[in-house]
Amino acid sequence: MFAAIRPDDWNFPLLLHVLGASLLLGALITALTAQVLAWKREASADILPFARLSFRTLLFVAIPAWFLMRIAAEWVASKGWNDVPEEPAWLGIGYITSEGGGFFLLIATILAGFGVRSLRRSDGERGGTLVRIATVLVIVAVIAFVIATWAMSAKPD
Amino acid sequence: MTFSDWLLALHVLSAFAWVAALVIYAVVVAAGWGLSVPSDVIRMFRVSRVGDALIAIGMMGTIIFGIWLAIDLDAYQVWDGWIITALVLWLVAGAVGGQTGKVYNGARDRARALVDEGRNEPSPELNAMLRSQRGLVLLTLMILVVLALLVVMIYKPGAG
């Protein structure tokens, strides 16, 4: 198994990479839960608190976690992780999903922030659409990072 | 992909679900820090329901797929020191998690009771329950135990 044969000095950056990735997925699921609750809007007073919680979670937890995951990945790579003649599929999946998911995360955070501002200024009348678009983008990011987690752990050829 | 690869993937995904639950709880506790109106508290705790599902999936998945993996792979045995350490940490996490849940579920239940009584005004008692030092210490301990589990899983101390 890869874990059993990797050099010891890869462990710390790998720990940070896994920690960042798990925090990122946790933050995205937290934000998504709040966004879905805002979308359902069971009570009119629900939308702003849930939208605000979602935006703050994306901004203060998900984005720093993405950087931790990504920087630690490069740290591991710098130690020779990806020094292979032919890039394995799982490594390619990891790069594509982390970059793509990071892009969706950034756009979702910006839209969620503008959505919260509109909701606050209009007393909950405007801004709901922005929050809903952000919800869809976060769903895409969650799917991307779940696939990345599967690929990085199962390491398909 | 081999069967062991699938077991490892499911084990890791379960661990991520567990961490996701802790992130949800931490965010709910942080968001609830300044709340005192019962209906606001009940609203915030609706987010934690997903955490309740994820922690059940995460804890069961890590133990089931983890033990299965240790049995399936020749390189590891269930009685290896680092696996025993992980099992002990898993049990500690379960115990601490149960206590943490009691503290915050108590605050949620109090908020529900206040709303049922028609007393939906700011409650210093409810705010004090949400800012409980015991709850905060237990949640921090839970996070540290899970972090220790992650360290054990990555470093595998004593593994050949």
Report a brief summary of the structure.
By secondary structure, chain A is mostly helical. Chain A contains 5 helices and no strands. Chain A has one domain (9-78, 88-154): Four Helix Bundle (Hemerythrin (Met), subunit A), CATH 1.20.120.
Instruction: Name the shape of chain A in a single word.
Output: elongated
Strand content of chain B is under 5%
Q: What order do the SSEs of chain B take from the amino end to the carboxyl end, as H and E? A: HHHHH
Alpha plus pi helix count of chain A: 5
Q: Rough shape of chain B? A: elongated
Number of strands of chain A: 0
Order of helices and strands of chain A: HHHHH
Q: Sketch the major β-sheet of chain B.
A: none
Class of secondary structure makeup of chain B: mainly alpha
Uncertain regions spanning at least 5 consecutive residues of chain A: none
Helix share bin of chain B: over 70%
Mean pLDDT over the full residue set of chain A: 89
Report on the structure:
Chain A is mainly alpha-helical and 157 residues long. Chain A has one domain (9-78, 88-154): Four Helix Bundle (Hemerythrin (Met), subunit A). Chain A has 5 helices and no strands. The longest helix of chain A has 33 residues, at 89-121. Chain B is mostly helical. Chain B has one domain (3-155). In chain B, helix 1 runs antiparallel to helix 5 (133-155) and helix 3 runs antiparallel to helix 5. The interface between A and B is large, with 36 and 36 residues.
